[in-house]
Amino acid sequence: MLKRTRVGGIWVVLMWSGVLACIQNVAAEQPKMPGKVLISDVIITGNERMSKEQIRVRMRSQPGSDYNPAVVDEDVRELYKTGQFSKIETLSQPDGNDRVKIHFNVCVMPNMVQKVTFLGNKHIKPDALKSLTGVRESTPLNPNLNHQGCQKILEKYAEQGRSFADCQLIKGGDLADTEVVYQITEGPKVKVSDIKFEGNHFVTAARLNSLVKSTPEWFHLIGANYNRQMVDADVNELCNYYRSFGFQDVRISKEEQRSADGGEVTLIFHIQEGPRSRIADDSQQ
Asked: pLDDT tens across 152-199, in order?
């Protein structure tokens, strides 16, 4: 009995010695944390329009600062925002111990905008549309910027109550273009003629109507313009209201029924309440 105990004791000692040795080996094999890597130089090539100083002032990566790939990526995004470049490539080059050179190779937009034309606009002047889109003559032709201009035009018309306006980029969507042409269909100002709710059982339509910001016109004279963004916000507000009472699976969609002349729209909110998953205070209804 004594011998077996001693053997067990020796085994335990050997086992823990092995564990300690293993721990020491792991610690010895772990690489040391690398020190900071400094940027020794920032080299910009391929640029033909902006000076290097104009480019550098937009960048956080500077000689003498810590090298951070995430910051280099941010610099690239910031340079794209200028609308001057069609392609930007970066390369980090080791430059001795704990130092690195950063290369930015930029490709400028090949063509300049020679002419900007807006077709179909009657309620917004061309100069206002140029300011809105940022698309002007004698600036680099940037297809992405031109496409974004269409969206900005539609948002502006929506503010005026023309939520069913349409905008098409006819020219300016290709790097080879030298002219930008927008085709605009303004459409009429649209009023909300009525608001309806379908599928609601837990709460009355009157209560739901008090939650939405979209309002119908009165006697065809007074009323809010139809605004799609506002309607989308109304859908979110209604969903949040139902969820506050435990309807976590509620689904709400919108339907737009336009009048024959397109000047009015009836809003219908289709509600699928789903099961109520918890007990809440019904006094808020």
From this structure: 999 999 888 898 899 999 999 999 999 999 999 998 889 898 999 999
Exposure string over 12-27, b if 16+ CB within 10 A, otherwise e: eeeeeeeeeeeeeeee
Q: Which residues contact residue 68 at a Cβ distance below 8 angstroms, ignoring those fewer than 6 apart?
A: 61
3-state secondary structure (DSSP) of residue 159: helix
Contact in structure between 218 and 264 (CB atoms under 8 Å): no
Closest to 87 in 3D by CA, of 100, 74, 104:
104
- How many alpha carbons lie under 13 Å from residue 2 in its C-beta half-sphere? 0
Are β-strands 251-258 and 191-198 bridged in parallel, bridged antiparallel, or unpaired?
unpaired
* Buried-state track 128-146, b at ≥16 Cβ within 10 A, e below 16: ebbeebebeeebbbbbebb
This prediction's pTM: 0.63
Q: Are 88 and 104 in contact (CB under 8 A)?
A: yes
Q: What is the Cα 197 distance to its own chain's centre?
A: 31
What are residue 107's phi and psi, to 5 degrees?
A: -115, 120
For the chain, the residue count is 285
